[in-house]
Protein: SET domain-containing protein
Amino acid sequence: MAQRPNENVYFARSPICDAASSGSGKGLFANRAFAPGDAISVIERPLGTSLDVSRLEDTCSNCFLWTTMPHADHGEALGARLYVPEDARVDVCTGCRSVRYCGKKCQTAAWKRGHKYECKVLKSINSMPGRSLPKAVFAIIDMLSRRKNGLIDDRTWAMLCELDGHVDHFRMSEVWSDIELMATGALHYSGTGNTFDRDFVISMLGRVLANSLTIITPSLDPMGIMIDPHLCRINHSCDPNAFIMMDGPQVSIRPLREIKKDEEVLISYCDTTLPYARRQLDLQTRWFFTCKCSKCKLGTTAPEDEWKTPPKDLAPEWKAKAKEMSGRQALLDDPANYVGPSADEKHVAVLQGKAFECHREAQLQERFPDSLRILKEGMSICSQTKLWPIHRQPYPSLRDDCIYALLELQKYREAFTQSFVRYRYVMPKLQRTSFHPARVTQTWSTAMLAFYFSQEAPIIPGVEMPLVALMLMRETAGLCEKSHGGKNTFTISVKKKLREVESALCAVLGVDDPTIITTEGSEQMDILEEKIPFNDDLDVGLEAIVR
Ligand SMILES: C[S@@+](CC[C@H](N)C(=O)[O-])C[C@H]1O[C@@H](n2cnc3c(N)ncnc32)[C@H](O)[C@@H]1O
Structure:
């Protein structure tokens, strides 16, 4: 059962969603001052959870232990999820053959929490060939059957029902017929037709679709959705003062900066690194509101909307390319690409649309060489037009996926180079808070790549990779108390690995005190920076970056 948030927070009417068309417009407020590193509130388990279909196969449905190691044969995997025990495995529930557990303890806990009612339902869904339901429907089935059987108390249920289901918004949207179908399915399969009616289930589905948050691992991999009457009260800002961290099913709300007593606690629902038009569109389409946060008030003058050179300076050959680009009209019509009314700005809007399209298309490819080719195409639009600063989207996201594809293709040297570029030049501008969880986890994966290469032949001549790995590991260890908290399994595994590496290095160098390696480590970081300098033509030929 969901726990009440602790005395550190309270709910009240939020000034931020005064303009919300319906709903109570409540938000979460701080009962005392908070500093980075504190936990504002901790919830042991959200009320409802539903894993992505692919995670049902390899993840414990109770504690969310994800047992598959992506890229099991190379560096990033060696470090990104060190907190997962080597012998971790999950076994399927022999009743429903749908969910999996990592052991008896998790199976028993899930059974008592409600799987005893859901098991038969899942079994009947599972036995129908080709039937797979969206995760929102599984979340609803679970909650309806638990409520029917007295496993969700009146107060929690009332709070859940207070969340806005945005039914009128959904009714006008293109997903309405899907929602009606899903509600019918949920009511039918959950066997709760004599307790709830279809309209109620439709509003419940709306609540899940418009209020759920993403379940994440401590290394920020998305795993599914969660809905909780307390967590789902937190409003959005594109310049949030807090973020959500998880460790298994435990959810903590953590400050991104100092928060004063009685200040509203705000998280981000969307990717806040996107330009203004894209953020607004995303928030309007998925959460039905117009954001008026401090960043949105700056409109296109915020750093997320900066160009390196103004659109009027676009080179003639790129203007010509923009004129000829396939799908030009659709790219121009898409408000997400809007740059301005002039002819030059329209060319830039087309190029921007194309670069975002490359990012989306690359994700749909089945083969990594194809994704890499498309990602490089997108990156060269950003770099060769000379319009994009290194931190303007979709440039950073293209680079992220590029690193992933390069690793899959075992192009380790380029993967490390791009990972270092991201760590050293992109992230400090993209996420300006040093302990932002995305920054910390990416620093750690760069550290782990360096560590992996420290055991191989030197990949960058003249650079001592063990010392680079050490410095990046120390940086991560110094920040993860704030990003993750001292007791998070990520923090514990980072610190353990750091101690191991420090003592191995001490043994090799014949010293007792690891702190004396610091000077040499800093020197190696400087050398690495000289070898991989900031360069505007950084992405022209990914292989040709290292000096
Ligand atoms: C997850 S709920 C947050 C809790 C909500 N305020 C309530 O009282 O239930 C999301 C909804 O809150 C409102 N909301 C959240 N952040 C907002 C913001 N920055 N500006 C306006 N409305 C916001 C929108 O109606 C959105 O669909």
The CA atoms of residues 337 and 353 lie 5 Å apart. The pocket of S-adenosylmethionine is lined by residues 14, 16-17, 20, 23-27, 163-164, 210-211, 232-233, 235-237, 287-289, 291, 293 (CB under 6 Å). The radius of gyration is 25 Å. The chain has a mean pLDDT of 90.
